[in-house]
Amino acid sequence: MPSHVPHRVHLRRLLPALVAGLAISFAFIAFFTSALRDPQPNGVAVAVVGPSSSVREIQRGLDQGLPGGFALRRYAGEADARRALVDQDVDGVYVVGARPRLLVAGGAGASAMTALRAAFGAAAGAQGHSLAVADTAPLPQHDSRGLSAFFLVAGLSMGSLVFAAALFFLGGHAHVMPLRLKLAAIGAFATVAGLVVAIDTDFVAGGLVGAFWGVAGIAALLAAAVALTTTAVVRWVGLPGVGLCAMALMLFSLPATGGAVGPEFVPDFYRDVAPILPSHAALLALRGTVYLNGGGTVGPILILLGWAAAAIVAIFAAHVLGRKRPRLPVLGVA
User: What pLDDT is attached to residue 3?
Assistant: First the structure.
């Protein structure tokens, strides 16, 4: 007959699952709600082509309606301002004149484009002018809100995190698995994942089309950055590292990108941190590759490479220093 297992043993086995479930639920609600519960323009960067006096006057008018909502940057010429728009340094270009013009890039964010139209349409109207609006990088009909890039980033981040966690739970950190084999497995996963999601979003879901190899490359970099970072953290802190990476790379990082509305609409804390996060970098790189002819992709790609390189260094450091490898907890019956 089976031996009786005390209730305290069952409770000890179930406690980690209980804590993990509650922590993830709390973090999901806290991060997503605090970041996206009331999306408002927050420091939306706009290049203004015109005299300094006009820039100051327009800024004062915008601040009266929405303090801190827009940050104007004066440019001497329209060509430089257009380049800043393509490079994703600004979200729009306002050209001062008898008939003011607003240049936007829908592919860089539909919500920002809508906010710019409303704010600068009102600003031009207050001066008795009508506003001419031109979209230099319009979104296609099959992705009319520009959400496909965010869904790719969210789905691939989750899949890469699950892969790295599975590598741990299936013994990928044990002494019997050589370091070079573990890194090769992560590299193979990232390569295949990049191709799979590119096929998915291009030929199956019809989201990001027309830039297959660019999407595949960026996706592979994101998968490598997330998987390597999770592996490095787990290598140093053990099982809790899986939860820490889920919190940082999923539950915090994704709302920091602004989700469906964009990073221009999240509170200051998220907006300040977002530029160094892999999810935000991948999002900018995808938008630049698919909609802006490669504009503004160099910086985000370097950030993804930086995350992957730092993780590899951390993994090798743990190996060289002979740090004890993490083990799965084994719960006894007494």
Answer: 55
| Residue 169 main-chain phi, psi, to 5 deg | -65, -25
Single-letter amino acid code for the residue at 14: L
pLDDT of residue 332: 46
Give the model's pLDDT for residue 299.
96
d(CA 72, CA 58): 9
End-to-end CA distance of the chain: 17
Domain boundaries defined on the chain: 44-138, 142-320
Q: Are strands 44-49 and 92-95 parallel, antiparallel or unpaired?
A: parallel
Where are any strands of DSSP class E within the chain?
Answer: 44-49, 70-75, 92-95, 101-104, 132-135
Residue 70, pLDDT score: 95
- 3.30.420, 3.40.190, 3.30.310, 3.40.50: CATH of 44-138: 3.40.190
Which amino acid makes up residue 184?
A: A
Question: 3-class SS at 149?
Answer: helix
Count other C-beta atoms under 10 Å from residue 185's C-beta. 16
47 three-class SS:
strand
Give pTM, 2 decimals. Answer: 0.90
What is the structure's pLDDT at 84? 96
User: How far out from the chain centre does Cα 216 lie?
Assistant: 16
On whether the CB atoms of residues 296 and 89 are closer than 8 A, the answer is yes
Rounded CA gap, 317 and 64, in Å?
Answer: 53
pLDDT of residue 7: 67
Calpha distance 285→140 (Å, rounded): 18
List C-alpha distances in Å: 25 to 257, 274, 326.
20, 22, 26
Among the residues of the chain, which ranges form H helices?
A: 7-36, 52-65, 78-86, 110-126, 148-169, 179-199, 212-237, 240-246, 253-256, 268-273, 278-291, 298-320
List, in order, residues 6 or more apart from 137 with CB less than 8 Å away.
86, 105, 106, 107, 108, 291, 292
Task: Please tell me the predicted confidence (pLDDT) of residue 233.
Answer: 94
Mean pLDDT, the chain cut into blocks of 10 residues (334 residues total): 62 76 90 91 94 92 92 95 95 93 91 92 87 93 90 96 88 67 94 97 92 97 97 90 92 90 90 94 96 94 98 92 65 44
